Amino acid sequence: MAHPSLKAAFDAKKFIVAPGIFDMISTKVADGMGFPCLYVTGFGTVASHLGVADAGIATYSDMVGRAGAFARTARTPVIADADTGYGGLLNVRHTVLGYEAAGITGIQMEDQEVPKKCGHTPGRRVIPAEDMVLKIKVAAEARRDPNFLIVARTDARTSLGLEEAIRRGHMYGEAGADIVFVESPESEEEMAEICRSIDKPLLANMVEGGRTPVLPVERLKALGYAIAIYPAVGFLAAAKALESAYATLRDTGEPPAESYGFGRICELMGFPEVWEFEKKWAREP
Fold first, then answer.
1. The CATH number of the domain where 37 resides is what?
2. Is residue 56 included in any domain, yes or no?
């Protein structure tokens, strides 16, 4: 079941900050931080699960399995990347039903051609807007729970310009998308124009080093965004920490002095409950 709290937050016009999660440890850490929503990043999930680029290689089964595991673990609502819906209209219907059954609260689909590419990398091509409209209509009709949210993303800005991206944003909102995501605006002025032009809850994608300026939350609110996702914040920090820890071990022959702590990670993973279970059911020698 979708979490009703997320739809209620959008209806109440509460600004949503959603960190990216990409594996089970990042899910457990983020879930305890008090965020109203978690975002399953395609880039990070594909990288951590398959060790390859987010370039259309991951399948529906790869992604629904991973995202579903995250959603079952988290108490926090989860929005998950679903690429292009993994095919045609029947695939989109199957994807929505599968993500919803997996316990995910929202699905993000984009209007790229197959194979898709990460939204802040070059070479992306988009399908006709009318084809994406049909996908959104199918997705809206397929969902069984009214609390299940549909995020419609357009990648048209990079290849076709801002005007076309805004036109598509209008169309996708009218087709039934709950949230409109215009990917990769290239300046704060473009972000402001998107917010002035589209009368739907809007998503800002804050990617460190990406094509879009990373703005403070208060500025995003003032522009008119409803939600900001930070898909890369977790895996970039994790990669940096791992690189530093491994370098320390290589160079000194010892692990780093500061870390998350073994006791703390045992608690995060649920070992105290395991130990209590074992104590209760232990057989006398």
1. 3.20.20.60
2. yes
120 C-beta neighbours (distance < 10 Å), count: 18
Q: How far apart are CA 99 and CA 67, in angstroms?
A: 8
pLDDT band at 285 (very low <50, low <70, confident <90, very high): low
For the chain, how big is the Rg over CA atoms in Å? 20
Average pLDDT over residues 142-161: 96
Widest Cα–Cα separation across the chain: 75
Q: Could you give the number of structural domains in the chain?
A: 1
* pLDDT band, residue 123 (cuts 50/70/90): low
Mean pLDDT of 145-173: 96
Tracing tokens 């209509």 back to the chain, one arrives at 137
For residue 234, give its domain range. 4-238
Residue 229, CA distances (Å) to 53, 181, 207 in order = 20, 11, 8
> CA-to-CA distance for 163 and 168, rounded, in angstroms?
9
| Cα separations in angstroms, 106 against 86, 96, 147, 208 | 16, 9, 8, 23
Q: How high does pLDDT run on average in the chain?
A: 94
In a domain, 250, yes or no: no
Please report whether residue 125 resides in a domain. yes
Residues 56 and 83 sit within 8 Å (Cβ to Cβ): yes
36-60: pLDDT as tens digits: 999 999 999 999 999 998 888 889 9
Asked whether residue 268 is assigned to any structural domain, the reply reads no
